[in-house]
TrEMBL record:
Keywords: DNA-binding. It comes from the Bacteria. This is MerR family transcriptional regulator. GO terms for molecular function: DNA binding; DNA-binding transcription factor activity. SMART domains: HTH_MERR. Coiled coil: none annotated. SUPFAM superfamilies: Putative DNA-binding domain (SSF46955). Residues 1-70 form the HTH merR-type domain.
Length: 254
């Protein structure tokens, strides 16, 4: 027969914890000996180990109390559910650990791995650091504000840049950053951007966007704020699209 202190040391809990389990109906309170001390037996030790194991696995005490009256099959099913939850938690903890290690190495990645790999490709394709940083910030905002559409839009962008001709067009857009807003090269670039967009999407928006999507405004707003030349490009492109819609031939006409 064990005292409460001996039982606590054997199982690895405190005597206070055992008393809490008594109060909450998880562990039957044993009778007392002639000296007034509770005395526990092997069955109590086994039951306490079960309670402690479930509690450490994150099972709420109320649920543990319910499982005391469960059948063998019900108890096994509960254990399987706990195992699945633990597996998911372990996966999440491993992901968190990888992020912590990247943070410690100065490589914090607030984006999915495939987006990070894509940004590294932009560097190898000789996009400017300014452009790469802008793309990173834009994708963070898109994934944060429109998670349901972000991955499809990203895949579309990745397919575009996999085409060497379209990639050269984006490189020109990037390098137009320092041009004067009145530079005639912007007119030619805007015309070619519109032609490439027509060829890929027709006269509509990318199919990943619904009609009420705020993503184009979000993206173009950040791009336009970065450079007067880029803002001018956006104006030229919009004028071309509106001119095509009106059918008045007014695109790129001052």
């Amino acid at each position: 027969m064990l005292t409460i202190g001996q039982l606590a040391r054997y199982v690895g809990v405190s005597t206070k914890t055992i008393r809490v389990y008594h109060d909450k109906g998880l562990l039957d309170e044993p009778g007392r000996d002639a000296s007034g001390y509770r005395r526990y037996d092997a069955d109590d030790a086994i039951e306490l180990i079960k309670i402690r194991t479930l509690a450490q696995a994150g099972v709420p005490l109320a649920r543990i109390r319910e499982l005391r009256s469960a059948t063998g099959e019900e108890f096994q099913q509960a254990l399987r559910e706990v195992d699945e939850e633990l597996t998911a938690r372990i996966r999440g903890l491993r992901t968190t650990r990888r992020r912590l290690r990247r943070l410690g190495a100065g490589r914090l990645a607030p984006l999915p791995d495939e987006v990070g790999a894509h940004l590294e490709l932009l560097v190898r394709w000789r996009f400017s650091p300014r452009w790469v940083d802008l793309q990173r910030d834009l994708w963070i905002l898109v994934f944060a504000t429109h998670p349901g559409q972000a991955i499809a839009l990203f895949e579309d962008q990745r397919e575009i840049l996999a085409d060497p001709a379209l990639r050269r067009l984006f490189l020109e857009y990037d390098h137009a950053y320092d041009l004067d807003a009145g530079d005639p090269r912007l007119d030619d670039l805007a015309r070619r951007v519109v032609e490439a967009s027509r060829e890929r999407y027709g006269t509509g928006d990318p199919p990943q966007l619904d009609a009420a999507s705020e993503i184009p405004v979000l993206i173009q707003g950040m791009v336009n704020e970065a450079s007067p030349a880029w803002r001018r490009l956006d104006t030229l492109i919009r004028d071309a699209v509106l001119g095509e819609t009106r059918g008045d031939g007014s695109e790129f006409v001052e």
